[in-house]
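Sanity check

After download, print the first record. It should look like this:
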Amino acid sequence: EIKECDWSSDVCSSDLCLSCPVVKMCYDHGIANDEQGVWGGIYIYAGAIDKQRNMHKTPEVWKRLKKKHVY
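Expected structure tokens:
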């Protein structure tokens, strides 16, 4: 089932990314290549986690992301 997403909604982007089989590779690529945007469910700017754009994430979402990314 394809889900319509409002990418400003953390629930949507996090759930979609966390269910993806390549979420860790996506995040690693974003970091390694100085990317900008959502990579592996996390907003990245210039290859680093953008704290301001990720402020809306709850501790539970961060816990789930860290479990997937192991960073």
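If your output differs, re-run the checksum step. Summary of this record's structure: The helical segments are 10-18, 23-32, 59-69.
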